[in-house]
Structure prediction request, 179 residues.
Amino acid sequence: MNPELNVGNELAVLVKAAQRGDRAAFGQLFEQFAPTLHGILLARLQGVDADDLVQDVFLTAMQQLPKLRDPEKFASWLAAIARNRSYDLLRRSSRSQELPEDIAIGEDVSTRAEVVRVMGIIRELPEAYRETLTLRLVEGMTGPEIAERTGLLPASVRVNLHRGMKALRERLERSTDRE
Prediction:
């Protein structure tokens, strides 16, 4: 028996239960997909915005879940909601200024600054690379997990990770050379 079919069936059972109003099933979906959404959103938004928007996306999903026709498409449907919500937020938001990185309290300033620098570079990459790299590097997901939770093909994830890492390395080297 193909283990991927089993995973899809388990997901479909959970989604169908959640569609019938089973809050525990929806809670399991939340636990399973919150890191994925966080990575997708973090690839586009600052950390605090991404954290808040995860909750908002799940609230929207809970309200719209009865309209989902194919429970096996839940992962890609949820990812699409997250992407759309991040686009909406970016369109609505005015550019606000962030505190300088050296003002961070209670954190290793140099480590935080490096993370912010790398995430800034990742956000400049093409969208397909941003998402897969953020899910891999920040959320710690494997390629197959990324594929399963975003609805992408495993081969596409592998290619995006490979090309994205190459582009990230090149840009990091260029930015280091300029310093």
